[in-house]
Amino acid sequence: YPSEFLMQKITEDNQIPVHLHVSVSLQYVAGLKGRALVEFFHSNIAEVENEELRHLTWSSVLFYKTPNVEVMACVLLSTKAIYFLLDDSFIHADEHQSDFWNKENSDCENSSFHLSCCFVLKLNDLQSVNVGLFDQYFRITGHSADHIVTCLTRDSYNTHTFIQQLMAVLSLLARTPSPEPVDKDFYSEFGSKNTGKMENYELIHSSRVKFIYPNEEEIGDLAFLVAEKMDGLTNLPSLNILLYVLAFQVNHSEGSAQNTSSLQAKTLILTSSDLFLFDEDYISYPLPEFAKEPPKRDKYQLADGRRIRDLDRVLMGYQTYPQALTFVFDDVQNQDLMQNLTLDHFGE
């Protein structure tokens, strides 16, 4: 251990997304290759001697206790646990939530020693994994509020790869088998579903960890919510959600010594007639079993919405992934004017 193929794969995956800022300590980790990376894992991170590193990915993460702080992490999956290697600045996240992203750690500037904190979630404590819409993110749930983490991969391939690797590792766990299911009669089978809502698709792994996938009704609920935000101008049956993607909105702050741009996480939803930006709560829904009250904010909060017919042009950058897009809209004073003319003259 480990095989050449595994070391090559982990080395290829050990790349920080170019659009996100990380501390010097994590940059050091990203510079490790092959055997040096495996040795670093065993000497600095691994908790027991005989565990094997199986997968590595870089992702933004959110914790249930600090839902407004998105932090970059190196996520390491071994045969015993999932390790989240975090920026040292995350320790102060509660005090500096607003300037968390741009905080420079001056204490470490002239020091050759850099600290990272590591959050550990043992596989034996894992209870469920919720996969987000279109595999844009996934939430790992343990036995308490301290053990709920969302990985915002913003990439369906990375999500799929991690889930596959996690299932493979969970298959190695020796857990006591579940008790035999009790035969249910007709009434208990069909009478208990009084919520009026279809349950999400659940896959119960042999390790008894639940993998929960969204069903079609989530898209229906989202379409209904979007239609509400459009003030009922659109016929709901004809409203199709064409695209759902987790993105960043770029805010340029000019006038400073150097023009800086901050990234704000947004959910972009494209329908057949409108373009929306939502602030989405990726960590609180669906509610964990131990939650005593609903979260303070709704899952989706509208941040901006524009009609496609007002779109003037789309500017595309020439850099590689992630691609920057600028949407330029016409500034129409009376937005309802065009809508009413269309309804009167071209349709019922």
Automatic annotation (TrEMBL):
Subcellular location, principal: cytoplasm
Signal peptide (UniProt feature, chain positions): none
An example Gene Ontology molecular-function term: kinesin binding
GO annotation, biological process: Golgi organization; lysosome localization; regulation of protein localization
Keyword Cytoplasm carried by entry: yes
Domain PLEKHM2 PH per the UniProt entry, residue ranges: 114-178
Domain Nischarin C-terminal PH: 241-347
Annotated keywords: Cytoplasm
Statement: the UniProt record of this protein carries the keyword Cytoplasm: yes
Subcellular location: Cytoplasm
A cellular component annotation (GO) from this entry: endosome membrane
Name listed for the protein in its UniProt record: NISCH protein
Source organism: Brachypodius melanocephalos
